[in-house]
Structure prediction request, 64 residues.
Amino acid sequence: MVFNRMVFNRVSPGKVASFRVKCSLVPLGEKAKTTEKKYVLNAANEQVMQEIVFRGDSAKHVFP
Prediction:
């Protein structure tokens, strides 16, 4: 398992905000055929991204 950081940019009229998030790279058995996102609900009933896989990658990004 490899630890990494992902950067997400939020763009709204006149504003740009960047967020750096720690993630772990978990190897996949083969290259991903599709882009997939997995969410969980937190205590406030909000969707929180738990992992993301990009089509063509050989690892998934898992967030703590």
